[in-house]
Structures are given as structure tokens and as C-alpha cells.
Amino acid sequence: VFCLAPRASTAKLGGDTPCCCFRCSGTARSFRMPDKSDNPMRQIKVEKLTLNISVGESGDRLTRAAKVLEQLTEQQPVFSKARLTIRSFGVRRNEKIACH
What we know:
By secondary structure, this protein is largely without helices or strands. The protein has one helix spanning 60-73; strands at 53-54, 79-81, 96-99. The two termini are 54 Å apart. The mean pLDDT is 80.
């Protein structure tokens, strides 16, 4: 067991040798880190996974993206519509441009 004291003379202590370090509470073997695996906040849980394919246009590419999502999730995809008309992108208002 290693002492966390900054001095080199107390770096390696064996057995129940007293330590002058305040972290060890008297002996070098009595200092133990708590087991972190018991903490329930360390467990990883996935509650929700959201998949989104933004094609940017309606038509064949959007229907193929919807088929891919349906094959992956075994659910019916929901289509998203454009909010505004943007002429430079060739997108009209209320046109289906994405699926999720």
C-alpha cells in the first residue's frame, strides 16, 4: 500500500507502520479508496435514442431515407416540414425535408 504523502520518506510503508500523513489516519494500510462500482450514478443507462435524417428536399431521397429509418427502428418515421421558403436552397414552405 502506498502513502499519498508528498515526502519521499513516507512514500512506501509496509505493514502497520505508523505514517505521519494526515490522509492515512494513522497507518499506511488503513487508507483505502471507496469502491466506485457501488455508486448507482456510475451505471450507464440509455433511455432514449433519436435518429434523424435531414435530406433537405422531398422526393426520392426522402422516401429512401424513410425506408432506412423504418428498417433500423421497425417504426413508422415522422416527416418534418420546412418552416420557411429559401429560394437559394430550393426549399419551399411546408415541404417535407426530413424524417425522424
